[in-house]
Amino acid sequence: MTNKFLPSVLAVYVVAVTAGMLLVYHDFYYDILEAKCIYYCVCTAAVLVLTGSWLFLTGHGKGTVAKRKSFMDMAVIAWGVTVVVSTVFSPVRFHAFVGNGGRYAGCFLLLLYIGAYFCITRYYQVKEWHLMIFLAAGVFMCLFGITDFFDMDLLGFKAEIRESQRHTFTSTIGNINTYTSCVAMVMAYGGVMFTAARERLKAAGYGVCTVIAFFALILGESDNAYLSLAAFFGLLPLYAFRSGKRIWRYALLAAAFFTAAVLVGVICRVMEGQVVPITGLFQVIAGSRFLPVIIVFLWLAAGACYLLDRKGIFEKPSVTSVLIKTWLAFLAVIILAAVFMLYDVNVAGNGDRYGGLKSYLLFNDEWGTHRGYVWRIAVEDYKKFAPLQKIFGYGPDTFGFITNRNNYPEMVERYQELFDSTHNEYLQYLVTIGPAGLLAYCGIHGAAAVQVIKKKKSDPVAAAALMAVACYDLQAAVNINQPIATPVMWTLLAVSAAGMAGEKSNLP
Predict the structure, then answer these.
(1) Which of the chain's ends, N or C, has fewer CB atoms near its CB within 10 Å?
(2) What dihedral do alpha carbons 287, 288, 292, 298 form, nearest 10°?
């Protein structure tokens, strides 16, 4: 009985964070960041106290300490040490600890991520139905966001919101950039489970959830969604192309997404003035003259792959190996093409040849709703740091203090705005916890990816959770870390690590 205590506690915790963080709120959007942050902190503090108390009372704590550490574990420990050192030597130590200079992502919150990680990886037993609850909560979040697109506001979140701000907040999340990062994780998890599901009914359920997430991403009005989509469709073949069933299901997902994009375009034209206008990359995709051809090709490809699978063509390891290698070569070509376009636009000055993509390829202060400006001043401010700060940063979540000290007049004059985040999670960590912290953070995620690559028969739940993390990681290049989507990501990361380890529990 006692051996079931911690796994049960961690099961409740995983559900409470992954599902609860998507839905919990207090005073609608007015304190949504604070409410979700407090919720996560209370849940995590409770599980840490329960875990620590149980280990102390039963004497099982020594086994945890003695357990062999993986490279991922060591990277997490290194990240934690860096965060603490950065906080101790920060010029604004108190603010670095509590994180009230930005998004409450100070030392305290970051250490909670680490504590939860070790609890989950040591004592959590991965169960598919736990994350089914996460997916169900995610679908509710998506449906609420979709109804917001039609300006329905079913739950009254926007009743007191100024008209000029109504379209910048959505669903039970708030900011549209944070919303789409949450939706991306739901999409990624559902999509991988759809490709892997053995039962038809279960596969259909996962498929429906993924399609709903597709619509929610498109209607979310944030371009960071397309980075998540790139990660999803770019990386999923490395998992899906190992069996015929997964191959045709992947093609089915791709066809479904582009079909959804066409349907959204039709809705926007038919209901113009009655729905929220969608701009950005969606216009480039929906306006492409090649889109109908792509859709027809993908549906035909899905059908062809299904027939080939029925004939057993994909059962040969040599076939799937060739497919994966071909896909890797395709990704390499795409990356090289992207690098060339960036050079062609920013160095050679040939931006006009790329039409609507020019604004995304040309880097200047106005790029990405002033992200170019914020990134530039972040680098300039980092160069001014003292030697110790250049290694460990200014302190967690202290970017707002840096810009207020160094860039206040310019920010107010140019944009009438104060920037308290770099809107790039990796640059944020470079400035606030230094290259030491950034390297450790990348090591954590790199180690997780290596675990999946090494496992020829990865647990689907673990692989799906890691795909959600990957989608978060890519969109993080233009987004911020905050106590809404980020805690969900860390929890899924730990769940993936627990599943990949293949250990049900560390209990005797």
Answers:
(1) N
(2) -120
Q: How far apart are CA 432 and CA 5, in angstroms?
A: 38
Exposure string over 355-370, b if 16+ CB within 10 A, otherwise e = eeeebbbbeeeebbeb
Do 124 and 497 form a contact (C-beta atoms < 8 A)?
A: no
Name which of 51-65, 133-147, 179-193, 249-263 the model is least confident about. 51-65
Looking at residue 153, its amino acid is D
Count, residues in the chain: 508
Rounded to two decimals, the pTM is 0.96
Instruction: Give the C-alpha separation, 405 to 384, whole Å.
Output: 12
Give the model confidence (pLDDT) of 114-147 as tens digits: 999 999 999 999 999 999 999 999 999 999 999 9
Would the pLDDT of 306 be above 70?
yes
Q: What is the amino acid identity at position 217?
A: L
- Among residues 12, 58, 9, 13, the alpha carbon closest in space to that of 508 is found at 58
pLDDT at 59: 80
Of the candidates 379, 381, 398, the one whose C-alpha atom is nearest the C-alpha of residue 87 is 398
- Which residues, including other chains, have CB under 8 Å from residue 470's CB and lie 6 or more apart? 188, 231, 232, 235, 449
Structure tokens at 31: 């304190």
DSSP one-letter string for 213-247: HHHHHHHT--THHHHHHHHHHHHTHHHHTTSHHHH
Interacting residues of 77 by C-beta distance below 8 A, sequence separation 6+: 69, 114
Which pair of structure tokens corresponds to residue 106? 């100070």
- Whole-angstrom Cα distance, residue 271 to residue 109? 44
Alpha helices in 124-242 (DSSP H): 128-149, 176-196, 200-219, 224-235, 237-240
Distance between CA atoms of 351 and 440, rounded to whole angstroms?
37
Torsional sign, CA 134, 137, 139, 141: negative
Phi, psi of 371 (to 5 degrees): -65, -35
Q: How far apart are CA 428 and CA 219, in angstroms?
A: 28
For 48-104, write each residue's pLDDT tens digit. 999 999 999 888 766 565 566 899 999 999 999 999 999 999 999 999 999 976 789
* H or E stretch covering 13: helix 5-18
Please give the pLDDT value at position 279: 81
User: End-to-end CA distance of the chain, in Å?
Assistant: 12
What b-and-e string marks burial along 214-251, b requiring 16 or more CB atoms within 10 Å of the CB? bbbbbbbbbbbbbbbbebbebbbbbbbbbbbbbbbbbb
Sign of CA dihedral 90, 92, 93, 95: negative
The residue among 253, 241, 250 whose CA lies nearest residue 325 is 241
